[in-house]
Amino acid sequence: MNTRFRWALRVVALGAVLITMTWLTVGTQGVFASPDESANAFFARTFAETGSMVASEPLNAVAQGVIHPRSMIAPGTAILPTSFLGFPFVSGGLRYIFGEFIQYFFTPIIAALAIAALWWTVRKLSNNELLADCSAFFALIHPAFWYYGARVMMPNVAFVSMLMVGVAAFVLACSKRSSIIGFIAGLIFATGLTMRLVEAPMMMAVVAVVLVAYRKSLPWKVLCGVAIGGAIVLGAYLVGNSALYGSALTTGYTLPDARSTTDAVVAISPIASIGHLLLPFGFHPRAMVTNVFHYGWWLYPVSSTLAVIGAWFAWTAKEHRKAWRTFVVCLGVAAVWMAVVYGSWSVADNPDPKAITIGNSHVRYWLPLFFASSVLVALGVLRIRKKMTHGLKSTVGSIMLVVIIATLSAQTVFLGSDGLIAARAAAIASIEKRAGVLADTEYNAVVIVDRADKYLFPYRRVIVPLRSDSTYAAMPMLAPIVPLYYFGITFPQSDLEYLNSEKLGAMGLSISPVVTIQDETLYRIQLK
User: Fold this and answer.
1) Which residues pair with 515 in a beta bridge?
2) Cα separation of 202 and 401, whole Å?
3) What DSSP assignment string belongs to 212-255?
4) What average pLDDT does range 10-19 have in this prediction?
5) In angstroms, rounded to a whole number, what is the distance separating the alpha carbons of residues 178 and 175?
6) Using 50, 70 and 90 to split pLDDT, how confident is the model at 390?
7) What is d(CA 122, CA 124) in angstroms, rounded to the nearest whole number?
8) In the predicted model, what is the mean pLDDT of residues 512-516?
């Protein structure tokens, strides 16, 4: 194939996917599909504007800390991030330097760099340009990478991408025996790790495998450079963590909150032992098998099957035997770790708990494995093609297989109840709901919501959810001093009468409808 034509195909494929990654964000006015994204966007902006990740809510002194959206916590009158700090820190820092737009394009940009880094690394280590092309292509169109690349304020694609760029820098450092490049690789690795610090045990295990396998050939000065660069970033992170949460090892997941109702907080906090630290969701073999089947194979059976076939070819390879076997062992270690840790967690992000969709958290948690296994998918396709005796048939068969994988990937990413098409439609609908609520509430109002916090905050102060003892306890304290509302499901008349006569009536409060917006209604809660 002509070199120019090959480069044109690379650019077109990369550009097409990256454009679709921005499609969910452009024109949706800062509305995101999840509270995690909304929180990351808020704290990135807060950091860019104030140099801090602390927001203040004085009313929490009265409301006992319940005024804050999901994915945030409120110890005292401060509002803090629940998630790890690396992602909002990096995207907020870039926003401060380059402007607001870069905050929302950081994930697609770093994703593009990761694909380029994967291509370069595979070609460098295997001396096989076609394998590099296929590896990069299959990583680019894997549904997990593609979909969460479009969820631009989620940290998962940025985390994986930083690791991949760090791997490429490390390979370059070893080939040139450069401690300076090794130092840069350490900075990149550690910056990525600050976005998903929970993956540190897995990364340490993978690093141990590589160090054992190549203990005689890895340049010590490169390893020292990596260690120093990583230590600088992680040291700074722990200092910042201590300043924010009061302890270097405390996070938003483990810090006590006035309302600890999310599954993540309940499962992780408090960490009383090493066992709970390593297995925050416990050890549940049946759930592991079910989740691995559903989210490791069922959503993308062709790619996952080819990855297993590719693993066999890699293990039995005669050329680059040591490198392939080390790679397979690293993926095996990562796969076991992720299956045990995240597979034991039964979580339903979709309103339908039985739905198996790409929007479930297991998909993004296992993203590092999916991304790395794209090399095995590529190897499987190329080895199967090589074993086919007829040249034309093998070429046509390979093209058809690639088209099938790409089509199935696009279908998984765009269609379904939480595919990108549905997610964009929901974002557009949320814009209308937000406009309606803002038009009919005072600027200083507090709005109780069930799911609308992700688009109402920070335009209005929010409490989540309505059906909570702490929410009901805060209502009599807030109603006399600020306008108080509920925005959510439209109550049947019988429910409204029950609230007025018993639940709220007993507190000296009443609730009345203000306006219905699409399928939800805004209610005013006030003193009788």
Assistant:
1) 522
2) 33
3) HHTTTTS-HHHHHHHHHHHHHHHHHHHHHHHHHHSSTT--TTTS
4) 89
5) 8
6) low
7) 5
8) 96
Inter-CA distances, 275 with 47, 262, 272, Å: 34, 21, 8
C-alpha 389 chain-centroid distance: 43
| Stretch (H or E) spanning 304 | helix 301-315
Q: Rounded distance, CA 456 to CA 432, Å?
A: 11
The tokens for 388 are 């086919």
Residues 6 or more apart in contact with residue 283 via CB below 8 angstroms: 340, 344
pTM above 0.70, yes or no: yes
Which amino acid does the sequence have at 10?
R
Give the residue from 417, 452, 416 showing the smallest Cα distance to 436: 452
| 15 CB-contact burial (10 Å; exposed 0-12 / middle 13-18 / buried 19+) | exposed
Distance CA 418, CA 283 (A): 29
β-strand pairing of 484-489 with 446-449: parallel
Contact 301, 412 (CB under 8 A): no
Q: Is the pLDDT of residue 76 over 60?
A: yes
Residue 491 is classified by DSSP as: P
Give the phi and the psi of residue 333 in degrees, each rounded to 5: -60, -45
Cα–chain center distance at 31: 16
Q: Tell me the one-letter amino acid at 352.
A: D
Mean pLDDT for the stretch of residues 7-31: 89
* Separation between Cα atoms, residue 88 and residue 365, nearest integer Å: 18
Quote the DSSP letter at residue 161. Answer: H
| Cα–Cα distance for residue pair 415/422, rounded to 1 Å | 7
pLDDT bracket for residue 5 (50, 70, 90): confident
User: Does pLDDT of 159 surpass 80?
Assistant: yes
Count CB neighbours of 180 within 10 A. Answer: 13
Sequence-distant (6+) residues with CB within 8 A of 390 are none
Task: Determine the number of helices (DSSP H) and then strands (DSSP E) in the chain.
Answer: 23, 8
Phi, psi of 32 (to 5 degrees): -120, 165
CA atoms within 13 A on the CB side of 313: 20
